[in-house]
Amino acid sequence: MAIEGDEEGSAGPLQSEEQRLRRSRNDETVNVSKAKLYSMYGVILMLLGALAVTNGSDWSSFRDEVKAEKEVVSLDRMTEVERPPSLPVMNPRGRAAEGDFGEEERERQVQQLLADARAAVEKRRAENGDVAEDLPPPPAEEQGVESEEEEKETTPPPPPPPPRPSPAAKESKPEGDAKATKAIKKAKRKAEKERKRKNEKKKELSGEGEEKSEAAVKRAQKRKEKYLQSYREKMARHKAMMVPRNYVLPAAKKKIVDDFAGSLQPPRYCYTSVLGSRALPREPDDEDAKYANLPLPVARKVLKLLAADYPCLVLNQACMRKETMGEDADLIFGRYDSLYFNGSALTREEKIARTPDFSELRLGTCAIVGNADNVLTGKFGEEIDGHDFVARFNVATHDFKEFVGAKTGGMFIKVGYRASEFHRDFAPTKFNLFPKFIPHELSPRSLPDKRPPLIYGQEDGEMPWRQDLEQMFYAFLEAKNLTNFAGAPYGVPKLPHPTGGITRFRALVQMLSSGICDRLDVYGFSVGGGKYFDRTHFVSHAHPISSENYFIRLLMATGVHGKLCVYGK
Asked: How does it sit in the membrane (predicted)?
């Protein structure tokens, strides 16, 4: 027991010493933490002080800039620059009047006006040879109410005012005014656009936008129904025109069709022009495999359709006389009379006399000039003008005379060019060929140069040449797999169709076949599709013109209607 008591007595002092050591360590730790905290506080205070100094400097610079801008505005007024009436009224602080713009636009415009004013002042000083001086402060009446700090600040006395500008400087309109006016107009347009946008947004939120969307959907549906109805009507006409006609070719033409072997080589006479000089017609080349190569049965089918004779394609007196047309003469005259002589007091013979007499009409050598850009590959002007009769489409020639000539015996009136820069600069000397507008009683008074018209013949509305043209056109497209070439709006294929130019060309071929033309030379027809007067203008995909180019070359190679030559690739 004595030993245990001794152990307890010695343990008490040791425990107290350990506690003192722990307390001293804790105190040291607390002191170190406080020192670090105070150091951090010191750093923060230093940063805050530096920030305050920087802000004070920036504020001082800002006030100096504002004062300088006010001084510039004041000096701009002192130089007596006349302000355009389109500028808004400025208050003493140089701000636009309330209501002119939105808040942001007003602030931006004021800054722009100040910059333009400074530029205008510097420009006038440079023009007058003045030495740049410190800008004077604005007059007292324009300073406005400043803050208390600004009133306490002392400013140096103003320097003497700059010399007044010369009279020439007064009269010249500052460039800054024009810029300011333009900027203000732009800001007004932007504000108006934003106002409209907000109004549209309000309408949408109020339900008007939904009604508008429904109306747009209904209009689109209506357009679709209209297109589909038109497509159904065109398809019905197309099917009717694809029914073959029952006709027999003369023996001479039938032999040409049966003997055709597929070659498109031009006849020998095409290598000599009407002037007697050497000429180069369109010859076969490597591209024919793509554009002018049909299976022989298809080629002969097309040639048979091309060889058909249409004595009344161009309406003439013989078409309405029974001794030449039999009972059909009354049908043709009836259609002719109802279309052009409604209410006319003329007799039948007087009406018939308004058409040409093909038994007497002779035009000699003929040429037809199309719009294709291949005429620019050769200077055909002199050669074209060497023909007795030249037919053209009504487009300008004055800049292209060396390529297409200027002589014009007949003119195809194309309404689309009437109001354009390519409007015709010539008038026909003999005929207006198949005009879109045919005057009452075929009176030439309202036609170009008062020349009589040549018109298409019709038998109770039927035109057999259109039926044949439709069939040979689709024979070519099917052989070339081009029946869907025109696209498919609303999910239905658009029907490709020949151009109006091929029908007009076919009319001149009929005049060649009838002996009115001794020879027909063709210029400006190609597969490229560009116009010689505007090479960026191309024929629509709805008109696969490679087919028409093949038909023309087929007529040249076979001579089935007489001497016909094609020039230009």
From this structure: Single-pass type II membrane protein
